[in-house]
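User: structure tokens for Type VI secretion system, secreted protein, please.
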Amino acid sequence: MNANNSYLNLKINKLDFKITKAIIKESLDQIFLCECEGFYENINNDIFSDDNIEFNPNMLIDKEASLIIKNPYENKKIDFSTNIDMIYRGIISYVDYLGVNQGSASNIVKENFKQLNHKHFFKFNLHSPLIRLDFNKANRIYTHTNIIEVIKQTLAYYNTKLNKNIDFSNIHHIYETKELISQYNESDLEFITRLAHNHGIYFYEDKDNIYFYDFYTHKGKIKDIVFNPNINNHLNETCIYALNKEKQIQTNAFTHSSNNSKQPLSLYSLSTKAQNTNVHYNEHSYESEYSFTQNINLKQSPTLKEKRNTMLNNILKAKSNIYHLSLNESIKINIQEETTKEYTIIAKEQILIDDAILANTINTNDNLNIKDLNLSKSYTNNLTLTPSFLTFTPSFKSKPKPPINTMGIVIGEDSNIENQRNTIYTDEYGRVKVRINLYANQEELDNKTNMYHHSPFLRVASNVASNHSGFYHTPRIGDEVIISFLDDDIDKPFISGSLYNGVNTMPQYNYPRYKREIAKQTLNYLNAIPMYNKGLDELKLQENTEYNLNYKNEHYLTISNSTIGKDNTDAKARNEITLKNDIDKEEFYILAQKDYKEEIGNNYEQTIKNNKTSEVGALYTEFITLGHMQNIIGFKNVNVGAQYLENTLLSKDTNVGLSNTLNVGISNEVNIGQNHEEKIGNDKRVIINNNLEQDIKNDFIQRIGHNKNETIKGSYVLQTNQSIKFHSKKDLSLETNEYFKAEADDSISFKAKNNCSFTADEINTLANKESTLIAQEQIISQVGKNTTITQTKDKIILQVGKIQVIIDDKGLRVKGGDLRAD
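Assistant: Done. Predicted tokens:
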């Protein structure tokens, strides 16, 4: 035995510790841990001196370290096909300084014993660097992502702390997007372990990489290992020398039924891939197409539970002397010459002892034989194997228990609450986005304050929520809400209520909102005396904008909903229903900030035992499908300050027992679609103080039984687009005291069956072009008694006195005088 050589070394920074004992635990279900003891040689015996500060426990903790395992068999008496070094890289999570020269009995008694080399003994825990994720608990929330991305984001916080590559290349399945993934009161290691394991993903590491798997595929050459149960192993061969299989009764942890644990409660069988109609999944599911959400259930599925159960039933335990077997490695075990089975290593525990290195520590003055110290150098490991055709399914992790309730703030599209306060921001399902207080502090620690994109949309609970029935209110941006958790599940938050605070106060009652200006004495007067020629006083409806809200609310029952908008944070604009409970002043008060609408499926009845007053600031409109009946025992007085319009599509009958008087202050207009008929039993008199204008699109016919007499004090103008005809069975006379003028753009003609005469002192005829005078027999033009011009069909006679000039077809003749030229 060469006491100077050791096959175990632990390197921390630049220090090289020789390890005398190590227990290494590895599993696909948890990160690796190495518990080891060893020493460091130094010329000084005081570890706490300034000269030895580099191996002071304070300088060793949380430092990167590497445990190197060489061939543990002295003189390589077991021949391995390869003598590789197994290296475990991690961090020091625990340091215990045991003392100096602990192996020498003399040094135990005499602490001032001086020698060249002092052995300082330590106990270490070498952990996976992933242990750094386990030091602190955190609260985070992730939205609209899948578990792989969440694991990557969580590991990204430790980019400079792990110093190993993260390998996701062995993730083959597609993981659906979750609407909400919560981390609550969990360390980051617990969180990613829960997410991974509950979805059938496992992870492990070697010296350089951290691997994530959801489906096992072996890489490289599969090692063939002999099974040799001979405990002496005279041939010194590499082998598995012990195989055993443990079995214990298992309960079906995911059902209360008495089904056999070998056949877990699953709707689908792994072997047949068909639905099993003999079992019923007895857990009610809230996730469906009606829940407005993607599947947020992060519990283990029955299929994975069945895989886990199948794997546990096929686990095999083994012991070997082979030091270079790796986790998640495939091996073939040759149990007999014709029997070879392939397995995957899912867990490994190694026990390494090298006490022989302490032989040179013994002081010869101790009078103690070295052989009596039982110093040795040995190696063994315990393996947990599963058949390679099964993919390792990790154990299931429980979710953290959420708080009963927590608080949250409703936020908007971005993180600026003040600029959006009192407004509404929802998704397509009407859910509101909430920044939950549980996660606010963690966001600040992560240097991601106001991570509104990691704020979920939550449903709002209601006392009644039925199909198109119930009560519903959408919390507004800036509201403080209470968050509860359905099924006690941290991934199922919902808004269970809201709280008033100093910013959003309770509904404040104010009445009256509008001032009434109708004189009370006028209303009282109407109760007694009908007013035929007088209407109500003018209505003056004014809004009281200077009121102060009653912050005590007088303990009235008030339902109020303020108008949305950042400019209405004082809630002066709102809809309100208030039930006053003062004795003898009970009142039901409704305030509609803008519109007020009622929809009634059948009848609507009102019974008012006293007065009813309606004040309408603008238009008042009624739509009645069938009929409108009013029975007024007393009088009816309608006072219209502006226009009054009535539309009757069919007939309208008005019965007036006595007289009917219509007083119109300015204009009166009557529009009749077709005929208009008036029947007057006696006279009709129309008095017009100004003009009378009639516009008739077609004919105008008047039938007058006797005379018609029109007296016009001014002028009379008759204009027509076509002809004008006057027909009288007797005379037609047109008389004027001044002149009579007839003008035509075309022509003027006069026609009489007998004579047509024009009598005037002077008659002038002017033709701009031609003047034609035609007679069938003769034309006589006479001036005085002696001068005439007579035209017949065959001659013209000009006569002056007794002289005649005759022009005919024979020529020109003169009678009674001479023809001469002067």
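User: Anything notable?

Assistant: Residues 102-116, 253-290, 362-373, 516-522 have pLDDT under 50 and may be disordered.
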